[in-house]
Amino acid sequence: MKFDFFTFGGRFFWEDLFNYQGWVIQRHTRTKKYRLLDNHGIRRDSGSFTDCKNTLLKYIEAYELPAPYTDSVLLLHNFGRTKFSLNKICDSLKEMKANIIAVNSASLQKSLNYQANQLIQFIKNLNHHGKLYVITHGSGCLLLRKLLASADNYRAYHLARVIDINPINSGSDLADLLKDNIFCQKVFGPMLAEMAPQKAFSLAQLPKEIPHGLIFYPPTYTKIVKKLISRFESFPFASPPSEQSYADDRYQFSKYRWFPLADKELGDICRQYLLTGKFPAPAPKEDTSDSEK
């Protein structure tokens, strides 16, 4: 068994393929090499997928790692982010008797179809037989829709409930403005064009039988964007569906914050919905009359 020091980052170039109690097998998006990281982010082995999995089995026995729960909660990050952006929400979900797993995907490197196939493989590697809950942030909602559209039988995943946080089910206005720029295509990869409203509309929506909740918690910078871009609200294209129309269960935060994902209240609301299927009563709106004068 190999013991190395902490890795030197590269979070945008590694995708998760296997997870066991926080131990992760990742694949490099370019070199296709694999590595095994423990639950502290220390590399324990590298080589082929089989090599890493065999090493993991040895550590499971040596460290007597407990067996995972039957149910799992998958968290899918936003475009241009990594799974570590969801750490605070993961902390709020630890009381649930389920495997809490944030999945890293190469959103800046690969297409939506590639990421969906990666996620399908990840779920298969979980080999779970219980309920599956999913929380998405931003473009993660498009990834989940693409996954279900690509799957032979989505019911095999036993999807219990889904939460979208600040989703772009209706597409991204900004992505539509940048998708034809050659420089932006090089920097942001093929998914940039796939987030445009025209592409987002073509994806099948989540099946009605899957309980689906939306959480809107606008970052503070949206106040500035709203003043600069008159097209910001409601994605005013030819026949755009309202973002609110993608689910009947919705929760709207009345406050703004620079980093909504860092708010413990957001994680608590996610946990309540996953457990009960209902959001709590909305908080009273903040009085902004003085600040707007």
How is the topology of this model organized?
Elements: E1 14-20, E2 23-28, E3 34-37, E4 43-47, H1 49-63, E5 72-76, H2 87-92, E6 99-103, H3 112-126, E7 132-137, H4 140-150, E8 159-165, H5 173-178, H6 182-188, H7 191-194, H8 197-202, E9 212-216, H9 221-228, E10 249-252, H10 264-276
Parallel strand pairs: 5-6, 5-7, 7-8, 8-9, 9-10
Antiparallel strand pairs: 1-2, 2-3, 3-4
Question: How would you summarize this macromolecular structure in one to three sentences?
Answer:
By secondary structure, the chain is of the alpha/beta class.
Task: Kindly describe this structure.
The termini are far apart. The protein is globular and about 55 Å long. It has 10 helices and 10 strands. 31% of the residues lie in helices and 18% in strands. It has 293 residues and is an alpha/beta fold. Residues 231-239 and 287-293 have low confidence and may be disordered. A 6-stranded parallel β-sheet has the order 6-5-7-8-9-10, sandwiched between helices. A 4-stranded antiparallel β-sheet has the order 1-2-3-4. Helix 3 (112-126) crosses helix 4.
